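Z., the sequence and structure:
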Amino acid sequence: MLMSHLHATLRTLLPSNRTIEEVVTTASSTFCQSALPAQFATLVLGKADRSGKVELVNADGITESTDEAGNEFDQNRLAETLLQSGDLLPPAVLETIQRTIVRYTNGAQPSDDRTMLALRWSPKGI
């Protein structure tokens, strides 16, 4: 029920002229008002144009993964991992991130889900 409510909220907000960050902020607020404290949703929302520009908002457990001392993997470590992935194809990028997180967390069970999306863009004619 809550997921269908979140889905309907996103479908209503997406056609507006808001940025995807504003859409997710509004949808999150609406979701939290109708959810129990222990309920959450994983969300990756992106928008791409024909030039290859991509906007992405990510609400999942990748950057919140923690090491044994409780330090989060964070955005900087994710960005560094992506930069080191170079020209890998999307499945290999996802595998690299997964291996890096498992190593960082020493194989601990995640406290949150870990959802990933990798895209490869190629301009027409290449």
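The two ends are 44 Å apart (CA to CA). The chain has two domains: 1-59, 60-126.

Let me know what you think.
H.
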